[in-house]
UniProtKB/TrEMBL annotation:
GO terms for molecular function: DNA-binding transcription factor activity, RNA polymerase II-specific; transcription cis-regulatory region binding. One of its GO terms (cellular component) is nucleus. The keyword Membrane does not apply. InterPro entries: prtT (IPR051089). The keyword Transcription applies. It is found in: Nucleus. It comes from Glonium stellatum. This is Uncharacterized protein. Keywords: DNA-binding, Nucleus, Transcription, Transcription regulation.
Length: 225
């Protein structure tokens, strides 16, 4: 039996294998913001952001938030399968490169880090996340002019691989990638951690001086350990 007021998933989730009510989706967003965010300080979800807004604007990231916040093993397994399939489709087939994918991958890495059965996927996911950091140019100062290489976002609209502006979200993402890559590198001893750069130091100082949430302070502390 399908739940009432089910959220449409468009092309992000296979509706034949998973359904989630609007009520549960909103509850999961609140759970993520109030209970899980300390484990994912690179991802800032403001108090006035609802599940429907995240789904419409960033469906891939929405998928991760639902997986991390669900307490159902069955739901988590279904969402985990959808996440892996979506990563393969977006990055390998559709050649997407954007901040949403990076934030989603980092959330997934933080999630599977606490799940013993998913340890083998840590190395691959971490390497994909680091490749996004390099391709988006987040570990170095933004260029003075837009770059000539184009990718496609989740709406199939072309965009340049790097922007001439850097957002707080992008600063959080590169620091989050550095933290997780250091943890995964030390744990698995198979890949090198993301190399710290002088520009990442600038990102750290900017977040320390212009905090938008308590999570920024946590992120700064973890990046300096």
């Amino acid at each position: 039996k399908k739940p009432l007021n089910s959220i449409p998933y468009e092309n992000t989730v296979d509706q034949s294998t998973f359904q989630l009510s609007s009520y549960d989706a909103e509850k999961f967003v609140v759970t993520f913001r109030t209970q899980r965010s300390k484990y994912f300080p690179f991802l800032y979800i403001s108090s006035d952001t609802c599940a429907q807004q995240i789904l419409q604007e960033r469906p891939f990231l929405w998928l991760y938030i639902m997986a991390v916040s669900s307490t159902s093993t069955t739901q988590q397994m279904d969402l985990g399968n959808q996440i892996r399939h979506t990563i393969a489709r977006k990055m390998l087939i559709q050649n997407e490169r954007n901040i949403e994918l990076l934030l989603g991958l980092l959330t997934y890495i933080g999630w599977v880090n606490y799940q013993v059965q998913n340890k083998p996927s840590l190395s691959v996911s971490m390497q994909l996340a680091m490749s996004l950091v390099f391709e988006l140019g987040l570990n170095k100062p933004p260029p003075k002019e837009p770059q000539g290489t184009f990718y496609f976002n989740h709406n199939a609209c072309p965009r340049t691989s790097t922007s001439i502006f850097r957002t707080m979200e992008e600063r959080r993402a590169v620091l989050g990638c550095f933290i997780f890559s250091s943890i995964v590198s030390a744990f698995l001893q198979k890949i090198d951690a993301l190399r710290w750069t002088s520009y990442m130091e600038e990102c750290l100082q900017t977040l320390a001086e212009k905090q938008e949430s308590p999570m920024d302070e946590i992120l700064v502390q973890r990046a300096t350990l």
